[in-house]
Structures are given as structure tokens and as C-alpha cells.
Amino acid sequence: MGSAFSLVPDRPIRRGNYLCDKQFHLDELRALQIAEEEEEFVAVAIVNGRETSLFKVSNLQQILLEKIGTTTQKNHKKGGMSQARVGRLRQNKAQHNATYVVERIAHHLLDEQQRCVVAGVVIGGAAGFHDKVATTLPDALQPFVICSVAFSGSHAPDLLEQCAQQITQYKLTRERNLLQELTTLMETEPELLDYGFDNIMRNMSHG
Predict the structure, then answer these.
(1) pLDDT confidence bin for 168, thresholds 50/70/90
(2) Quick one: pLDDT at residue 164?
(3) Which residues contact 163 (CB under 8 A, 6 or more apart)?
(4) Which of 16, 58, 122, 174 is the residue whose CA sits 20 to 30 A from 7?
(5) Is the CB of residue 143 less than 8 Å from the CB of residue 149?
(6) Percent over 90 (pLDDT), the chain
(7) Are 157 and 168 in contact (CB under 8 A)?
């Protein structure tokens, strides 16, 4: 006789997957067992001249942090100001918009100690506005920028799919840097290292 198991995740399942296969896929359930404070998020900013949508996305959920409204000077057709003046106004407005968007992104992604609260940042948009935003982010966020690409859509998952290769490379580089830090620590401060489960647990209990 077969056995039946009932699994109740710590958190609700927020999306459905339809998979026709010969086996049960438990990836979503495994991910739901991760403590919420340990869940890894990537910030996704979809920017253009009218509005910027800032999301926080993980394997389990997508959270809209803010929709940031912006405006630009309309193209000059006839009468009134000269084309050159309108062009300067558009350029100044675009710079103002980029500065404002950067301020709002920093507000959401930096804590009080100016530390980034996400694992990485992906920026997509049109007309070079995405590059203007990416290059003017605060220094504390610059190391976390995964990529800035041209993107005409409006959905965060589509942008993440477009940048899948860059995200994978970013994760590999981050892991390589962490291993390098560990190797350096082992060479320079070996007295800080401990080996064996029992020794580690004993030292942790002693503070």
C-alpha cells in the first residue's frame, strides 16, 4: 500500500506551475522552507521617460516597491520656442528625471548604514535612460548592478529572462570572490578558523 504525505509550507504559494512530467517537482516547496529573512531578492527597475517601476523579485514572489512618475518636454513642432531651446529643456528634464529616479531607487535599496539590501540590481529601459540611471546610482549600489539593457516591455520576469546570462555570470563572480576572501583569510589569519562540527558548535556556544 502506498503512503500519503501532507506538506504545509511555512509561507503561502503565490504562483502556479503546470508541469506534465513523470515525477513530482518539489522545487517550489523546497524554496518555501527557506526562512523569509534568508530569501534572496534581486531589484528590477524598468525605466523610461514617463514612469519607472521598481520591483523586488525572488524565486517565490514579486513585490512592487514603487511606481515613479516622470515627464519629459514634448517635441517642438512649430511656433513658440526654438527647437534648440526645446532640446535643451528636454535634456535638462531628462537629467532631472534620472536624478529623481536614482534617489527613489537608493531610498528602497539602501539601509540606514548605506548597505544594499538586495543581491543585485537589473535595470532595463529605452532611449539610453537606463544607462543614465545605472551610471548615476550611489557608489554603495554600483557593485550590485548586474546589467543595464535596452528593454521595451513592462514585466519584471521578462526583463530577468532577457538578462539570464548576465545574472548567472554575476552569481558565479560573486561566489568566486567569496571563495577568494576565504582563501585570503585562511592564509593571513589561520587562528580564526576552526574545523569539525563538534568544535564549531562548542565555540559558538561559548560565544
Answers:
(1) very high
(2) 92
(3) 122, 124, 146, 147, 149
(4) 58
(5) no
(6) 34
(7) no
Exposed/middle/buried for residue 156 (C-beta within 10 Å: 0-12, 13-18, 19+) = buried
CA–CA separation, 32 and 166 (whole Å): 26
Q: What is the pLDDT of residues 6-42, one digit of tens each?
A: 666 666 666 666 778 888 777 766 666 665 556 688 9
- CA distance between the termini of the chain: 50
In this prediction the pTM is 0.68
Q: What secondary structure, in 3-state letters, does the chain show?
A: CCCCCCCCCCCCCCCCCCCCCCCCCCHHHHHHCCCHHHCCCEEEEEECCCEEEEEEECCCCEEEEEEEECCCCCCCCCCCCCHHHHHHHHHHHHHHHHHHHHHHHHHHHECCCCCECCCEEEEEECCCHHHHHHHCCCCCCHHHEEEEEECCCCCHHHHHHHCHHHHHHHHHHHHHHHHHHHHHHHHHCHHHCCCCHHHHHHHHHCC
Q: How far from the centroid of its chain's Cα atoms is residue 140's Cα?
A: 14
Cα–Cα distance between 158 and 160 in angstroms, integer?
5
* Residues 99-128 pLDDT 10s: 889 999 999 999 999 999 999 999 999 867
- pLDDT of 103 reads 93
Those residues whose C-beta lies under 8 Å from the C-beta of residue 2, and which sit 6 or more positions away, are: none
